[in-house]
Amino acid sequence: MDWDDLRVFLAVARAESLSGAGRVLKCDAATVGRRVQRLEEAVDAPLFVKSPKGYALTEAGARLLPHAERVEQAMAGASEELSGTAGHLSGQLRIGAPDGCANYLLPQVCAAISDANPGLEIQIVALPRVFNLSKREADMAIAVSPPTAGRLTVQKLTDYKLHLAAHQDYLDSAMPIRSRADLRAHRMIGYIPDMIFDKELDYFSETGCETVALASNSVSVQMQMVRAGAGLGIVHDFAIPFTPGVVRVLPDTISLTRAFWLIRHADDRRSERLTRFAEALGQGLRAEVARLESLALGAT
Q1: Would 126 disulfide with which of 86, 102, 180, 194, CB 3.0-4.6 Å?
Q2: pLDDT at position 80 over 70
């Protein structure tokens, strides 16, 4: 059984199409199809069946998948071991993360990891949704709640805090805010209700505010609305130092705590490379959240 054919098999299994696998492998769909056929002939069993959603694994394909993934991990480990980069991480790693973490934390954390590992290429995918690690959309993902299904390993990275906040220019021109009841006279900024992809992001259900006048599915867009003086929003404390003029409002009354979780595919626990990166990522995130939140304490 040829490793290159297994690599093609994995790409099709994850992309669920020949063309999608071809884009990953940088070859045309016809070539991908021929390689799959060659592997099927080698194992004497069909590995995929064409379905309305694309290419789905057959029973034989599902049995082959974990073995192919273990070969993939072994090849990656061998490549690193023989590359002369002992003690350093190398190659490409992709992290999926919610956009708040991706925008305000990961740039600094990943820059420090990159400085310590010059041969490492880090890709940050910021999307307001849950990542599918089984399809290898990312090597690992950061989430705001731990998953309860799938062949995954989950590690809590750190707690973080959120508070109601507004730009000082807005507060200077608006009705005074002395209590939670005063919020009814103010414009609120938050998530689009039917696009909240995780219950942990339903902040306003805990504040008593029922109407969001300005909404976005992006944390960064919400923060820019707050920065523009458009109203009040629940924001990450770690984002406040990046937005001059934004201050916390009613910090002793409205205070939320959430957590970031690191999610990896269960088979990846055997990968020393990914484990070392995960350790560096966790240490960096904890330190950066603590640093930025201490700066945000002055914005009250």
Answers
A1: 102
A2: no
So what's the pLDDT on residue 106? 97
pLDDT confidence bin for 221, thresholds 50/70/90? very high
Domain boundary among 82, 103, 123: 82
> Based on the domain organization, do 249 and 174 belong to the same domain?
yes
Residues 41 and 167 in one domain: no
Q: In the predicted model, what is the mean pLDDT of residues 78-83?
A: 63
What are the CA-CA distances from residue 265 to residues 78, 126, 274 (Å)? 20, 19, 11
Counting the structural domains of the chain, the total is: 3
Question: CA-to-CA distance for 73 and 267, rounded, in angstroms?
Answer: 9
Beta bridge partners of 236: 162
Closest-CA residue to 46 (of 28, 71, 38, 18): 38
Q: Which two tokens stand for residue 167?
A: 């730009």
CA distances from 214 to 112, 149, 172, 188, 222 (A): 36, 34, 20, 7, 8
Count the Cβ atoms, other than its own, within 10 Å of residue 268: 18
- Please, how many CA atoms are within 13 Å of residue 112, restricted to the half-sphere of its CB? 13
Last residue of a domain, one of 40, 58, 82: 82
Nearest alpha-carbon partner for 204 in 190, 218, 187 = 190
**Strand partners for 166:** 247
Whole-angstrom distance, CA of residue 277 vs CA of residue 250: 38
Q: What is the pLDDT of residues 3-58, one digit of tens each?
A: 888 999 988 988 889 998 898 888 999 999 999 999 999 999 999 998 888 899 99
Query: How far, in Å, CA of 20 to CA of 18, rounded?
Result: 5
